[in-house]
């Protein structure tokens, strides 16, 4: 893993968490239980602190950073989609931040919100609990329903199981040169949400 001490700060990673070998974790970063950090992620705790609480996932190619002296907190079960940027923001419990969304400084996303893909959340914006927010700049469009939060929670459970599976099964190998006749199929127990 690319884990780096910076000045007096050494990252803290719970033993049940999985930080991909192609992720970069620097300085004052605290990673909780059953957290998944995907390849290409950059968690830069060089100027401030990053706290990623239990059960979060920060997917491929995300960036988490801040201005000097700021703490970025991802609360329990926060789900940060592929390519998102969290800069000096706070993300509440059981939130979903969509792919390639950008959360700017001093943003607060309250618990159980859904922030749409490609969304831009300007500095000092506060998104109230259980809001669905989309657009550039962000606009709140409706309330998160029980069905939506149940669907999100089930998806996050997959990511909470993934660290253990990766610890047990991930291995570097040479590729096959052709597809095996009996190649296994993937389960389809979780599907995109129907509108």
TrEMBL record:
**Transferase is among the record's keywords:** yes
Spell out the CDD domains in the cross-references. LbH_paaY_like (cd04745)
Q: Which Gene3D superfamilies match?
A: Hexapeptide repeat proteins
- Name the Pfam families on file: Hexapep (PF00132)
Name the domain of life this protein comes from.
Bacteria
Please name the GO terms that the record assigns under molecular function: transferase activity
- What is the official name of this protein in its record? Transferase hexapeptide repeat family protein
**Keyword Transferase among UniProt keywords:** yes
Q: Which PANTHER family match?
A: DYNACTIN SUBUNIT P25, GAMMA CARBONIC ANHYDRASE-LIKE 1, MITOCHONDRIAL-RELATED
Q: Which InterPro entries does this UniProt record tie to the protein?
A: Hexapep, Transf_Hexapept/Carb_Anhydrase, Trimer_LpxA-like_sf
Q: What organism, scientifically named, is this protein from? A: Phaeocystidibacter luteus
Its ancestry begins with:
Bacteria, Pseudomonadati, Bacteroidota, Flavobacteriia, Flavobacteriales
UniProt keywords, alphabetically: Transferase
């Amino acid at each position: 893993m690319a884990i780096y001490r910076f000045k007096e700060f050494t990252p803290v990673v719970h033993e049940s968490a999985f930080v991909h070998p192609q992720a970069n974790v620097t300085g004052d970063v605290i990673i909780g239980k059953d957290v998944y950090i995907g390849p290409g992620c950059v968690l830069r705790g060089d100027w401030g602190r990053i706290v990623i609480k239990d059960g979060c996932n920060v997917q491929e190619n995300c960036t988490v950073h801040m201005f000097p002296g700021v703490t970025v907190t991802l609360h329990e079960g926060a789900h940060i989609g592929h390519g998102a940027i969290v800069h000096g923001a706070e993300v509440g419990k059981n939130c979903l931040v969509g792919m390639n969304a950008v959360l700017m400084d001093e943003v607060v996303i309250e618990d159980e919100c859904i922030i749409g893909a490609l969304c831009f959340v300007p500095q000092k914006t506060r998104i109230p609990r259980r809001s669905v927010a989309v657009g550039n700049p962000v606009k709140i469009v409706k309330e998160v329903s029980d069905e939506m939060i149940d669907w999100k929670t089930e998806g996050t459970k997959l990511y909470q199981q993934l660290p253990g599976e990766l610890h047990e099964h991930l291995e570097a190998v040479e590729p096959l040169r052709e597809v095996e006749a009996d190649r296994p199929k993937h389960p389809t127990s979780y599907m995109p949400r129907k509108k």
